[in-house]
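Hi support team,

I submitted a single chain yesterday and got back a structure, but I'm not sure I'm reading the token output correctly. Could someone confirm the output below corresponds to the sequence I sent? I've pasted both exactly as they appear in my results page.

Thanks,
R.
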Amino acid sequence: MDLDGARLAVERASVGLAHPAHRAASEQTLLEFRRSPHALPACRHILRTSGVVEACFQASTTLRDAALRDWAALPPEERAGLRQFCLSVLLGSNDNANAAAAPASTMPVVTSQLISVLAVMIKRAWLDVDETSLGTGATQSDYQRVALRVHEHRSRMLAEAEQAVSMSNTPHARVVGLNLFSAVITEFAPSTASPMHLPWDFHERCRVSLQNDFLSAFFSHGVGLAKTAAQTAFAPQGTDDGICLASLRLINTALSWDFQFTGQHGGGFGFGLSDKSAKGENSRASDGLSCDAVKIAPGVGWRDALLLPGAIDWVFTVYASGREAGAASRQSGVASGNTRIKNITSVTANARTAVSNMCALAGDVFPNKTEDPTEQTRRAHFGKCASSLSNALTPARQVVANARAGVGDAEETMADDARSIAALSAIHAPGDFFETSSSSFADTGASPTPLASTLGELTVALLDAGALLLENEGGALDEALRSCMEAWANLAERSRAGQEVGTFVGGGGAVDTDCPFPGQVETSRACAAVFETYLRAGLVAAASAAHEEDDGQEEEGKAGAAALDERLSLAARVGRAAPEESLALLCAAMEGKKNALAQALATQNVDPSETLEELWWLARLTPHVLCDPFEGEFPLPPESIAECTRRWTVNFGDGGNASGQKSPVETASTSYLNVVLLCLDENALAQGAVSPRLIETLCWGASRWVDTYLMPEDVGGSAHASVFGANRPSLSALGLVGDGESRVRGGIAKLANPSPFSEEGGGVHAVDALLKVALVALTRFPGEQSAQRVAAKMLLPALTRRRALCRACGSLESWRSLMECASGALGGMSGGFGNQSVPGSIPTSPTFPPEIHRLVTEAVCRAAEGLAGEQQCQEYITRALFAAAAGLRQIATNPDAVKHPTGELFAVCVLEALRGAARASAARSQAAVFAFFKEHFVSLLVLQRAGAESAQVSRLSLKLTEEFVEAQACFLAPSNASVLCGHCMKVIETYRVSGRGVLGDHGTTQQQQQQGSLRKERSREAYKEVKALLRMLTHVSSVDADVTASSSLDSGPNSEKLSEAAERGGSMRGGSSRGGGAFAGVFGP
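Hi R., thanks for writing in. Yes, this is the structure output for that exact sequence:
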């Protein structure tokens, strides 16, 4: 092979990639070069002799690909030679002592790529000596001998690199060696491994081997070199030829490893407390009770390397020195682009990352309480981290001002250190943050300032600087504030969780449930102050957003709302740490803004925009604080909110305190409902103060409140608060009087002071008011589908989720108005069908979108669960579905009207309404719903045939049948099952006759080009239809019923017809897979 000719061709092609005219030919040349069987010697020659950076880069990339491709065919000597070649190029050495160093050794981009190539080769050769090669007859000594040989093979590859670096004895060589070990760790990590076309087992075995045998050695190697470099004054200033910087990178790469199988506890809280830990015997604060924070748990084997006195102190020293050097350089007027400034910034950034990693240490790396009863090791480590972070973030207002001005790396410092505090809060004991003794700050040389003080100052400074303003969203201030709020939330939740699991042991050796967990009182006070500041800053930010053309939520859609809710949920976690104070602040804010709005509306030439925006923000925040976060199966009040109710009841009883004041939870709920009832203020509606956006948020929050507090059934509710104290509150105080039907029907005597939101104590009035709010959202703003959707999809389902609520709804005039609204939207009782006396007339367009019809009708029919008798249910369902029945009859009378766009839309709305009714089928309403559908089976088939040319009507007809079968199958008697199966057979037959499932041939090539997009669309429609059809058959054939009915149905006509129809559409296994049932007689063999 002509090596010089190959070099020239690769150089021309590499340079030609930058020129559009030569790009195609250059790409072809490089691809042929990469596929060449002689690529390895050509790559070596290019890297030794070429001075073209682009050519050397292409050669290094091709060297990796060719080596991996030909690895199995290469002898061991050639594999080792490839590694030695890469090292020689990287270190600038040469086999010929008289020859000049390879030009590639001076090209940073090429050396970086060669380091990656060498790491890949080391990994590829890692299992060349395999410990699994022994047969079944091998003895223990055989395994030990092979394991020793395997370890020697792997150690030799790493040692040859270290030996070459040591022989070079230059700072550049030392940096190359450190970077190589960092690349090896990166390559062996599964998430950053290069593709090698090998099974996953290869990568996993390499990972386990490196973690168990070499990772800690890499870390110690980096620490040793970094400590030596840090002892000089040059390292923090970045003038040590990059040794300290490379060492820090190696340390950070090692600590960023995804540690597994290191003996860490695996409890239910992530880094949880085991059963033994729950008793306080050997738990450690670093076990943590939060699973959200990133934690580094390297295990016991790393304890000496990380926690011995003096092991990592130099990291904090380098970080502090780097900050000081950077500040001094900026004060002296050195330009930001200066090489010295860049070196200082790089060293400081990597030292800051190392400090962040130290803050994230958790788990078994710390001794447990059996090994270290006073937790002195952990507390000393916490003191070092806290002191370093406090020095970096003090004074907080100056740090925030520098970040806003973009001074140096102030933004990164503030954000990273705030994130480090959040990591500490998720790992260490809350009491450590308020520690004022010198024990936690031993050997740090700093005054024992509690880290909580630094955190509080930073949080307040960020809020005062406008971190919540729209202009700062997604910036450094916003990110730092999120970390601070997460830290406070972690402290609050861990202090409560520590008390609940009993990890705090009193002086007598037993768990003390009445004594606060260390740091709990201080955390509550601090969180109350932080929440007050957050509330004030949030209102300021909301008022300023009133004058923005777009507040970001509409533009970003669901993503923007989700991001806002994420921020508010963090604030809510902080506020719930001190519910008495936080709820009082929310009440005062809501009442104040509500009164301000009334005053603005009563005064001419006063713009209420800011007040409305503040109310909108409060309406979004309050449900996060007050209501269930929907993280479990049943809606329950948050633990601290329930505990607040318990404390109030124990101290003041049912009647409130001496001045008649109710509990903070009840007061806050009442205040929030008063804000929601702004939707019913005709004056505000008439003046445009109540917008669809405000109604949408109020309906969203009201639905969460209803699920949490309104007429709760006995699935926990407020009752779980009673377990936190010896004095059990009364049923009335816990909100359990008349909440569930079992208590009302069981004859529990009505107490004098029932729960304010129970069925006995005013809950019905709340239901009535919220139903009126839903009506306003549905009818007041035609075309505002977002507000309609929230009311129909969230508020109405919440108001019909429990039987007590359904019972209350059925007795209210507002519910009957809602039913009339649903019927009127379809043109029923309000005359919306148009002139039916004119033949061929087209139904008028409905008021609601189709989806709203389904949601509203589902809620209306679900309320039938609150009725007592079967006859009442029958009458109620008939009245609720009157408009849908009238629409079916009209379509059956005039099926051609469906071909008109307006008629098609009407048919779609009717089908959607019926889908809602089918979904609402439950124990009490099932019979009435089935009777309604049975009566209109013929009309439904007519509608399916009439809409055969409409993809939407055809699909909804099949989905309606599918959902109806799914909802009814578990309730039906064998006789009704036969009727239902007969209808399913007719639906299938109608679909077959329509030919919608047949796409036809492809046609000519020209027709394919013209109708390609139409065919794809038709194919998607057919897929949805057949999917609904198959799901319907699945629901029918997988339900067991009375086996004795099978024989009486086997010979029925439906069996033969349906089997015949199924055979025409494909094979179908009939009957239940569990062997029988009423449906098996129709669908079975």
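A quick pointer for reading it: The chain is about 65% helix and 0% strand. Let us know if anything else looks off.

Best,
Support desk
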